[in-house]
Structures are given as structure tokens and as C-alpha cells.
Amino acid sequence: MAPPPPPLCSASPRPLRAPGQPPRDDVRPPPRTVVVAAGTRVSGAEARASLVLALASQALSASQRRFADLAVESAKYAFPSRRFEPRTLEEALMSVPDLETVPFRVLKREAEYEIREVESYFVAETTMPGRSGFDFNGSSQSFNVLASYLFGKNTASEQMEMTTPVFTRKGESNGETMDMTTPVITKSAGKNKWKMSFVMPAKYGSNLPRPKDPSVTIKEVPSKIVAVAAFSGLVTDDDINMRESKLRESLHKDTEFRVKDDSVVEVAQYNPPFTLPFTRRNEIALEVERNDIAL
């Protein structure tokens, strides 16, 4: 018997297609499109690329704004203010950040001090722990408490701008009263206690947000006349005692102004902690009044 004839084709059969129709393997579905505007159609890949670019541009813009803000703030410390006229080489080397400060005008300048008329201003204040005014732990703790209030730990969650200087003074033995439009918590301080205070931005006036921390009080410091002596370096309790005695001795010779009977020493520190000691500006102040026997 003769063998069966071979198959006509050994390849797998293909489905039939109309004449002129391309093979099925060459037929691709049309690309998906996304409508992005009336009458405009783009592919999904183009839409995703556009979204990525938009997000990247937005992030870059936000970063540029943050960088600009940081640059502005840094410039306040890198290019210090020259609001103080130096009387000595020591004062000429002092730098003061270009931040808002207490407004004043100079009434008189002497070799050892100057007399200033200071306008009223508001402060946030806290009593410092311990009996020493300038120990590192106590100062750091008080600074952080006041900085927290300034940067948002208040009833309005308001972030306020930093000012200068930071004041430190001996507390009075009879306590203090607060003149505010909203109630605040007030605590008395013993005569051996020290208090630290931040100057508040003038734009708030008496409408400052209330502190959340009960150890922080808000008070208005009335206008006054003070005798001020500037010095550089780090501040210590012994140094302040020596400089206070020297300032009182110098004022004893002044025929126009005299130290008020209830005057307590106040120390102003203008610089951040990273400032070199010889470029720091510190001031010691005593409140004075005009002498009745002045000519």
C-alpha cells in the first residue's frame, strides 16, 4: 500500500483575514488618551509627565521661598545693625543683629555710660530658676520657655518674629501687676529671684496672644530714663555685680541725673549664643531720674 500523502502545511493554522488586512500581530490598539482641556487630548504618558513636572515646579517654588526667607533671616545676623554709636574700640567691635528692638533716644553721653529715654514696650517674662541670674541651666531653661511662647505656644498659635535684646533683671520683692486687655497669670518673685524677658514685636501692641505656659506673663514696661553701660564678652553674676557698683559710682558724680531709689539692675544681651565673645554687645542699665539740683 502506498504511504499517505504529506500534509499540505506543517505550521499552525492562522485565522482567516480579509484580503489586504495586515497580520494580527501587526495590529496594535490605539493609545489611551486623557482629556485635559476642552478640545485637547493627550496620551496617558504625557499627562503623567505633565503632572510630575507641575509637582516638581511647585516643590521648587516652595523651596525657593523657604530659601529666600532663610536668607533674609540669616542676613539679619550676617550684616549687623549699626544703630549704636561706638564710644570705644571695644564697642566698635560689637555687633548687633538687625532685629526689632526697644525704641530710645540718647539724652546724654559720658565716657563710662550714656543716658537714654526709652519708650514703653511690651515683654513676655518668666522667673528664672535658682538664685543665680546667669547660670547656664537656668538661663537656657528660661530662654526656651519664652522662645516657645514667641514661636507658637500661645492661645492663637501665633508665630512671632524674634526681637532683641533679651533682658535679665532682679525681681522686686513686692510682686508685680499686669496691665493687659486680656487676663494673664501673675506670680510674685522674691527679691533674690531673677527674671528673663523677651521684647514683643511692636505691631501687636497690647493685643498679644495669651501664653499657654502659666510661668510666662505679659507686661507693659512704661517709658523711663536709664543709664546704660555697654560691655562685651560672656555675662556672669560676679561681672554684673562689679559693673553695677561701677555704674552707680559714676552716676553719683552726675549733676543732672541720679539713680532712682527703687532702681534694680537690668542686663540686656543682644546676640545669639553662637556669637564670638568679643563681638557680643551686652548692656547694664539702672533707672534714673533728673536731679532736682541740676543747673
Automatic annotation (TrEMBL):
Where do the record's region annotations for Disordered lie?
Answer: 1-31
Show the Gene3D superfamilies listed in the entry: Regulatory factor, effector binding domain
Recorded hits in SUPFAM superfamilies, A to Z, give: Probable bacterial effector-binding domain
Q: Where is the signal peptide?
A: none
Task: Identify its protein family.
Answer: Belongs to the HEBP family.
Pfam name, any one:
SOUL
Name of this chain's protein: SOUL heme-binding protein
- What InterPro entries does the record point to? Reg_factor_effector_dom_sf (IPR011256), SOUL_heme-bd (IPR006917)
Q: Which domain of life is it from?
A: Eukaryota
